[in-house]
Write the structure tokens for this entry.
Amino acid sequence: MADEMVRQAQRFFNTTYSGYAGMPTLAEDGQTSWAVMYALTRALQLELVISPQSNSFGPGTLAALTSKCPSINENTALSGNFTRILQSALYCKGYDGGGIDGQYNDRVKAAVTKLKADMGVSSVFPGSSLEPKVVKGLLNMDAYTTILDGTDTVRSIQQWMNSRYIGRADFFIIPCDGLYSRDVQRAQMYAIQYELGMADGTANGVFGPGTKSGLRSHTLSVGASGTWVQLFTAAMVFNRRAGVSFASSYTSALAGAVSTFQNFLRLDVNGTADFETWASLLVSYGDDTRKGTAFDCADQVTADRAKALYAAGYRLGGRYLVNVPGTDLDKVIKPGELTTMAAAGLSCFPIYQTYGDSSSYFSRPQGTSDAIAATEAALAHGFKKGTRIYFAIDYDNTGEEIANKLVPHFRGINEGMSQAGGYYEVGIYATRNACSQVSAAGLSTASFVSNMSAGYSGNLGFPMPNDWAIDQIKTVDVGSGSGRIQIDNDISSGRESGQNSFNPPPAKADLDVAFDMAWSSDILKDIQTYFQQIGIPEEGPPDSWPWPGKTKYTTSECVEFMLSWDDLFTSLARVLKMRKTLIQVSAIWELRHFNVTSVAGLAVPSVNDDFSDACVYDYHNDGALPDWVTQFADMITPMRDCSTGIGQIFGVRAITARNYAVDLGLLSEAKRDASVDADLWTVWEKLHFNQSFNISTVPYMHILHAHEHGMARPGLTTGEGDTEKLLQYYQGDTDEAAQQAKLRMGMYRIIEDKYQSVFRKYA
């Protein structure tokens, strides 16, 4: 919501300063933002004759303000505009700036008094004057009242730290918003260093050797009191330990809470604030000298390395199911490696990671593809049913990205696991926050926590996930000579036991491989040429259609779609051991024939696929309908089912096919009843809106058709005759479908004979 006084502050800045070099022009929208605070900071620097100006209220700005105006009030303000800058900042912070009139009046004084009380510094800086460090805190986006998910207890600790340490040279006013953040964590470290006696300039807010050494001599137990207990209970509160309050006395109740925390993190349980406990509260990796019994590594565990690891106390190791395409990093499990580990007494848990170092990789469809690919890889390595695969998120993620990217990605992973037969459980490797959010959504069964990345915002201020299995804390070298290996030293909670026996490697099969994208333009030209030969132009309907109109997608768009989903097509084919081309042709042929024909501006109900979808949507939904449905207005006749989505599959038939796949053990999900509207809608909605679900249903349709017509299940050796029959039955058991199947076979031969069979040969 726009604030009129913020708008006036923006107008004041534009009118007064936007003509100067380096000064921006602000949008006069009444919204407080960093852009506004940066602009006011630049204006203040101009009034202080600092050149050039910058967005940062750094040491130079603080020094100049301290020199020229160490205490700002009605008598010392440098100018009217100087005061207007401060009044504008007060309004942007939500305080009464007394009008933007250049007068340090009683309303400004009252606002400043309130601001300093909210900051917790009124005892250090009494009265209504503005001190330079307060001005620095005024010209940012920090809040000084409890907001969002903040707590009053955390806010009281923030105010206490401001009050106690603001006089130190490198300590600046921190937010008092009730939230534990990166700035608060750094301030907490400064506070500990100050109490250890470190001088200004020596204290640096880093959990380094001096801080570690000092904490080793500050073990606390029942009966202790004073500032050190306050710092310790603050750390417990920041870590969201239940039943702990900010206090100055170490009580038996606190000792009990500490014991619970120690047991949870697999520390020595003694109820005291010893170094390991301090460390685990202050940084995500805790005491990085702790000796773990688990590890993960990118290098092969040879026999000599396995012996060295076992001798060093390790019993559980994480290894990678696949390599990252397009990179030279060779981290995948090698043939015989799992047997070597098991013979040495080491169990293994599998990790799946290809890309995953930025938010752009993650989505629900990608999750589905990853799950099916991970299943295929795990089966190939011999991991038994029930093994947990940890899917990696290897970057710092914001809360928004977790909600909008990572949770949907893991929904896709769970769907993909079901599509691939439900062989394996889902684990997650990520920051504390991401692990906790995905677990809370019911999308993972255990967390492998990237605590080694202590600076990640997803680890700062977030407690360990309740379902943590592996705690990654430090990269170390183990062994010597031929037994030397670099690993990540991990703490095990006992939740993950890994596997120490494996299925024999499956017989080598002529499985499909990924499409080589260097040939993407060639396959597009080949399919375009073939389609044109059979009367399907690049754009528009086939010549055989008896009505005028149009199709929704061009040939180019359909081929691009096929290639963009190549990971999923490949994984499905490999897991189900059928030809990828069979799945692709059925899906892409239907996509190219998606009809949006209209006559005289009106949809033609009998042939318009969007219209049919709208009728089904209307049947299953009461009340407000989306625009894509209401565009057909009064033409809609509610309809219970129709073919929909990429592969143009009926909901009833999808239920039948998927239920049959469940019976065969190919799919792991609850069966549905096609006669029940709720079940039908659940499946139809997914077919329509979830592309990966629709694509994944196509091969089950082929398997069902083969069963219904007494044919062998489609596989790697299915001949052309049966393939053509399967393509026919996908459309129906009619003469027209038989004729269409012959045309589809032409596309099949192009993709299979010219490309996929060649890629398999040289894979």
